[in-house]
Input
Amino acid sequence: MSASAQTATADLEDVRRVLGGDVRAFEGIVRRWQGPLVNMAWRYCRDRGRAEELAQEAFLRAWRGLASWRGESSFSTWLFALAANVYRNDLKRVPTVTVPMEDAPEPSAPAAQHNELAERSQNESVRRAVLALPLRYREPVVLYYFHEMDVSAAARTLRLPEGTVKARLSRARALLRKRFPYLESATAAAGTTHLPSREEA
Amino acid sequence: MNRDQMNQDQLDTILAREDEIIPSSGFLARVMDKVQEEAVAPPPIPFPWKRAIPGFILAAGVLGWGTVETVLYAIHQPAEFALPNIHLAASITEPMQQAGWVVGALAVSAASWVLSRRLAGRF
Output
């Protein structure tokens, strides 16, 4: 049995026990999914403390609404969609502190691009620029990379058609390319490697 | 490889190469404490529909009766329905006209403020 199948079986068993009145069984669910949920929240807000608070709220919502999971989708899909909803609503209520995309710092000295520090700084600038995207474009980007470049998984989490997610990803990339026009030469010089996406694989 | 494809690959490289964070050691315990609190908390008091329904029915009846009476009054006695003429001195009407413009300007300002906040919240 594969690891994901084992996880799915364990999830199903824990959900049954929780719905049967065994509160402690929820611990297994939290133990298995705390890493992914905290990391997902981190990508939404890039604030460690807030990421944990958001993930905690997502687990509480999952606890309250556990009976609403009918098993039509996998437990992880249901949990990620619920968490995304919690994170999205919270970010609408209290937006992350971001600078406008136009003001995101960009390394200006080409010679410095060879320096590892400069490359790190540039990468961080790109990630910060993602946070400055409008939410409708930011969320597909966050979830696409969180799900290791799997469009269909991101679409399931967002509960949107794949075509919509692809269109928003394309628009988000266009906005980022506009902000970082010389990204190509900069990262090529730094010797970055191409990660194949799941779609290509 | 065209420019767009290459640029996309570089974005992929940067955004996919994200460091993972590990939840703090007390995270699991904190979540389970909250869950336990919720589990032992008494269920929320349901809305008393049985008691409220007669009140709702009465309120709806009064409102409907009032609406019907108003409409019947307007249909049957249109000639008698006229606003009373109020005669005011010029010294009073002029400042009132000014006040009307002030109120109008305030209303437009408030509407544009509300609209801008709604737009800002959407984007």
User: Anything to note?
Assistant: DSSP finds four helices and no strands in chain B. Chain B touches chain A through 32 residues (CB under 8 Å). Residues 46 and 52 of chain B are 12 Å apart (CA to CA).
